[in-house]
Amino acid sequence: MQTSTLNNIHQSSSSSPSDSGFSLLEMVVAITLLTIGLLGVASAIGYAIVASNHGRSITNTKLLAVSMLEQMETLRDTNSLTFGQIANVGHVDDHGAVKVFAGFQPGFQQVSTNPGPDGIFGTADDLIDAGPDGNFGTVDDFVNPNFAVVGVTRQVQITDLSPKLKKIQVSVDYSVAGGTKQLLVTGYLNDNSTSSYIP
Predict the structure, then answer these.
(1) Residues 6+ apart with CB under 8 A from 72
(2) How far apart are the C-alpha atoms of 125 and 102, rounded to whole Å?
(3) In the chain, how long is the greatest CA-to-CA distance?
(4) In this structure, is residue 32 part of a structural domain?
(5) What residues make up the domain containing 163?
(6) Which of 15-19, 72-76, 82-86, 167-171 is least confident?
(7) 6 in a domain, yes or no?
(8) Is residue 22 part of a domain?
């Protein structure tokens, strides 16, 4: 008689470690770390935006101040104004000039994107719009507040150091997050458009 032995094969009910999933505690820790990392990235992006805006404000402010100094040289070089006319209101010398000039406004004034009828920035007519007809000096001229640069004011101080030399200080106040800052630029202008030296 032939006897056969049955081999019982038992399969293990436990799975290998590689098949197991994450526990709830591990998931909570992972999500917490991911959240902290994302908050750090968001904070860095926010700081970069603020720094970029601040840098843009400083650059624009420097351009406003330097452009005013360059305008003074151009006015002198093109004989649009005489050397004596490049002055603040009340100190203008119109002697020998082709046209009468009122002068540059003292104190802080709104900065305009438009030079007004006289074509010179920093004067009293900077916010004047020519109106629908496009001609200055007609009845439809009006003060256009849209020409004003928001959050920026400028002061031009012109001091006679000698009959042949003027000191020009341009101060620009500009808005930044949390307040206002000021930039001061100083330049010197002589009465000779062909020379940088005082004779």
Answers:
(1) 86, 168, 187, 189
(2) 10
(3) 144
(4) no
(5) 41-112+147-190
(6) 15-19
(7) no
(8) no
- What was the pLDDT predicted at 50? 79
Length of the chain counted residue by residue? 199
Instruction: Identify the DSSP state of 19.
Output: G
**Residue 9 forms part of a structural domain:** no
Question: Exposed (0-12), middle (13-18) or buried (19+): which is 123, by Cβ within 10 Å?
Answer: buried
User: Residue 104 is which amino acid?
Assistant: F
CA 86 to chain CA mean position, Å: 27
Q: Which two tokens stand for residue 183?
A: 């930039």
Token pair 């038992």 in the structure block, residue? 10
Q: Looking at residue 169, what DSSP letter applies?
A: E
Residue type, 122: G
- DSSP string of 50-113? HHHHHHHHHHHHHHHHHHHHHHHHHHHHTTSS-GGGSSBTT----TT-SS----BPPS-EEEES
Mean pLDDT (whole number) for 71-89: 93
Q: How far apart are CA 149 and CA 141, in angstroms?
A: 20
- Model confidence at 198, pLDDT cuts 50, 70, 90, reads very low
pTM: predicted TM-score of the whole model, two decimal places: 0.70
Percentage of residues of the chain with pLDDT beyond 90: 60
